[in-house]
Structures are given as structure tokens and as C-alpha cells.
Amino acid sequence: MKILFLVSSIGLGHARRSLKVVEKLKEQRRVEVTWLAGEPVLRFLREHGQEVHNLSRELSSLSPGVEKMEREAGRINIGIRNGVKLIGSIRHNAMIAKEAYAQVIPDLVIGDEAWEIAYWRPNCRVVFLTDFIRYTAGGLIAYVLNKVLIRLYRSVDLFIFYGDEGEYDPGLIGPHAHHVGLPGLSRRDISDRSKIREKLGLSGRTIVVTTGGTSIGSDILRVAIEAHKTLRKEFKDLNTIIVLGPRGSINKKVPDGVKLLGFVKDLPSLMYSSDCVITQAGTASLSEIASLGVRCIAIPIEEHFEQLENIRRFSIFENIEFLPRRDLTPELLSMKARECILSKPLPFKELNGAGRAAEVILHYIDRLGELSEK
């Protein structure tokens, strides 16, 4: 079976969970997967040895469009102008996807928040995965986008929601909707913590700061560096690893004990090796952290409907504490990080939503095979 897999280019969380889905599909069935994705996901997939369609270079990355919505540090607003530009980029990507489809001629198209499918309907079966149902923000743009989303969810052949049954109304979408829980991690995804630390050359207390695959979050990086200076007075062996990701940057000298990394191929292992993770509140990252049990300070982007909703979704996990963006100061962050460092991590928790999503897709593929034989 030939599959064309489309992935959102907003950050890297969609790519990490989608890669787990594909790995399980390949373990269980003979499938040939071609990916279509813009930067920064394009680089991520190539780093993991995946077959990426050459038209991926023609796609408009949605990350810059989302970054332009950051009105001030840590606060975003869609706005009519940005919303129109974002929709324009999605429509452009729909034309590229249509061309890639004509070249691959797949039996199945899978999209992880690949919004271009809303503006182009492949002439084959379509599976769609997402971790949110609709925009909860008000305004005209949100109203229009919600109508597009629900129409998309209803039109695909198989809809998979990374969440729990009580988080949405199944009747809103239809009988083809399935929920698989949070993406998270399986125990087999992560090796022993001490071995990871040895492999990474880590000794002493370690804080990992990661703000995702976009440039939003520079305010957290600046405050984290100042907090590190305070913490190092007490923890002489403290190392703070700042993961800039593919689009972040720091244009000044950092103090002793702070290490800057760009793209990290295996971010979950790096987080697992730490005593404390400081991050924003993306669903994929928090799902992984919830599985790992490592202590975490999550700082949601203000007015970001999905990250604010994640305060409710992830407050049940004892290892994750939320800190409002407006309260972010070096003093408060250093105090919270100190509490994390002095606390033991929680046991690993299996949250294998990506694995369950793959199982739903495998069952669907088998059903298609049975129908074709009749």
C-alpha cells in the first residue's frame, strides 16, 4: 500500500508523533510512505531517514505565519490580516499537495493537522489526525476557521483525535471519529535514564529549556538564563541546556553552565535525562513530559487557545506545573526550578496515543483490503 503522509509545519510535535505512527505501520504491514512537509519538519524527517517528496521544498512553512501573530513576547492574536495570510499559505500548500498526489498516486492519504486537505480533496481514502477540535477564541476569523475545520473533519474517511472521549461531542463529527488518548510515549521509545545521561556526557543537576519548533518563546529563554545565574549559586554543578530548535536564536554570550543547542534529533531522551524541563504548553511536548515523569514548568503562550486549554488537560499530571506568562520573572522561575530540582521524578507513564492511532489506521487498512476483495 502506498501512503502519502502530510504533516503540519507548525513546530515539530506533529512530526514526532506522526513518525511513531509510521514506524508502527511499517512494523505491521508492507507500506510505502512518502512524506510531504515544509520546514522545519522537512529537516526533521530527513534527519530520521524518511522518504520526503521533493515538492516539500515548494511548500509554505506555516511556522513564520504563526510567529507573526506574536503581538508581544509570549502573546499571540490571529487578527484578520494574519488569518487571511495563513489561509493563503494553506491554499498554496493545497495546490502543491495536489501535484504531489498526482505524482505518487497513493492508496491512502494521511494528514496530521494538514489543513490543506480542507481545500483539496484527494481522490482516495483520507485519514486525519489532530489534537484539537475547534478554536475556542472568539472573533470572525475563529468563526470562519471553525466552520472549515468541522467540514473537514466530517468529510474525511477516518478521523482520529489525540484526546479522550469526553473532550468532544462525537455527534459533531460522525461515526468515523475515534479518540486515542494523548500522544505521549511508549516505554520502548526511551532507554534507561542513566545510560542517556552517560551518552550525552551529563553530570550534575540539569535543566532543559525548550520552546518548540517556532521562534515564539524568546522571552522564556532570556528569563531562564537569568534564573540559571541565581540557581548556580546554590547548585555549583548545574547545567542549563537551552534547545533553540530550528528557528530560535540567542545573540549574546551566555554564562558558564549554559549550553545552547539547535536542532535536537531525540528531544524526549534529552528531557528524560534532566531534573527539570522548562517549556511552553504545546500538546505534543506536554504529552511526552507527562509520560517521562520529569518535573516540568510549563509557561503557556497567552491568548493561544490550545495552550490555555492544555492547562486543564495536563493539570492532572503531578509532574507538570503551570506558570502564567504574565508572572514570569527570573526570581519566580528560579524558585520553581529549584523545587523541581529537589523533587524526585515520577515513574514513567505509558501514554501511547500515537501507537493506538496506528492501530486504528491498521484496522482501517485491513477493512479496506477486505472490501476490495469482495
Describe the protein's architecture and organization.
The protein is α/β, with parallel strands linked by helices. The chain is globular and about 70 Å long. The strands form three sheets. It has a six-stranded parallel sheet with strand order 2-1-5-6-7-8, sandwiched between helices. It folds into two domains: 2-184 and 352-373, Glycogen Phosphorylase B (Rossmann fold, 3-Layer(aba) Sandwich), CATH 3.40.50.2000; 187-341, 3-Layer(aba) Sandwich (Rossmann fold). It has helices at residues 13-28, 41-47, 63-67, 80-104, 140-155, 170-173, 193-200, 218-234, 267-272, 283-292, 305-314, 330-341, 353-373; strands at residues 2-7, 32-36, 70-72, 75-76, 108-112, 125-130, 158-161, 177-179, 206-210, 239-243, 258-261, 276-279, 296-298, 320-322. Helix 6 links the parallel strand 7 and strand 8.
Short description:
This protein is of the alpha/beta class and 374 residues long. It is 42% helix and 16% strand. It has helices at 13-28, 41-47, 63-67, 80-104, 140-155, 170-173, 193-200, 218-234, 267-272, 283-292, 305-314, 330-341, 353-373, and strands spanning 2-7, 32-36, 70-72, 75-76, 108-112, 125-130, 158-161, 177-179, 206-210, 239-243, 258-261, 276-279, 296-298, 320-322.
Determine the fraction of residues in helical runs and give it as a percent range. Answer: 40-55%
Q: At CATH's second level, what is the architecture of the largest domain?
A: 3-Layer(aba) Sandwich
User: Which strand-content bin applies to the residues?
Assistant: 15-25%
Radius of gyration from CA coordinates = 21 Å
Compressed to H and E, one letter per element, the order equals EHEHHEEHEEHEHEHEHEEHEHEHEHH
Under CATH, the homologous superfamily of the largest domain reads Glycogen Phosphorylase B
Structural category = alpha/beta
